[in-house]
Amino acid sequence: MPKIPMITLKITLDHTKPAVWRTIIVREDIPLTQLHDRIQGAMGWFDSHLHLFTIKGTMYVDHQIWDDEVRMADENRMTLKKAKLAVGDTFTYVYDMGDYWSHTLEVLERTSVLPEKAGSWVLDGANACPPEDVGGVHGYEEFIIAMANPNDEHHQQFRTWYGHDFDPTSFDVRPARRIVVMLDHFGAGYPWEGGA
Questions:
Q1: Is residue 107 within 8 Å of residue 89, measured between CB atoms?
Q2: Does 68 or 144 have the greater pLDDT score?
Q3: Residue 35 is part of a domain; what is its CATH number?
């Protein structure tokens, strides 16, 4: 029985302190659109904004939702296998063009497994994903400082906006794993639709 090529990626959210990162394994033949979904699930984002990939100098976007796709390649037609990435290679994923969350993805390993073992999986990670719409890296830094100090002039404003306490060092791998497994079984968008 032929084996399925898999790729292990370390995703690091650039310029965050403490560093926010996840390690995932995915099939090499999934389109970048599906990789986007798995990055969202692993990191803890909610897929509320546009995104793009840059691999070996070429920008890839979802032509189904971008208006100016003429200058960019279609991520629905591109896979990591076609990109021919070697261990140690890196590429970029940007989420939310306003907050501009830039992620560096590094290829840690390339393997092959039997078809029944070829599912997406979150292997590891550290630190909490920033809240959506917090204002990018600078806004996130202000948010962390204010949330940690009840005497900070912005504490109550952020506390009301966010709704509860925030621990920047927390990360539970189990919900991230659940989401990427659901993506494999139910398809794009499922974890965010219907409150799943």
A1: yes
A2: 144
A3: 3.10.290.30
Query: Do 94 and 106 sit in the same domain of this protein?
Result: yes
> What is the domain range of residue 8?
4-128+169-192
Contacts 24+ apart (CB under 8 A), 50-56: 50/96, 50/97, 51/93, 51/94, 51/95, 51/96, 52/93, 52/94, 53/78, 53/91, 53/92, 53/93, 53/94, 54/91, 54/92, 54/94, 55/83, 55/85, 55/91, 55/92, 56/83, 56/91
**Same domain? 148 vs 159:** yes
Please check whether residues 91 and 8 belong to one and the same domain. Answer: yes
Higher pLDDT, 185 or 100: 100
Give per-residue pLDDT as tens, 181-194. Answer: 999 988 765 454 44
pTM above 0.90, yes or no: yes
Q: Give yes or no: residues 135 and 78 share one domain.
A: no
Spatial distance between the Cα atoms of 92 and 177, rounded to a whole number of angstroms? 22
Same-domain status, 95 and 136 = no
102 or 70, which is more confident: 102
User: By the 8 A CB rule, do 127 and 19 touch?
Assistant: yes
Same domain flag for 142 and 185: no
Specify the pLDDT at position 70.
66
Averaged over 36-49, what is the pLDDT?
Answer: 96
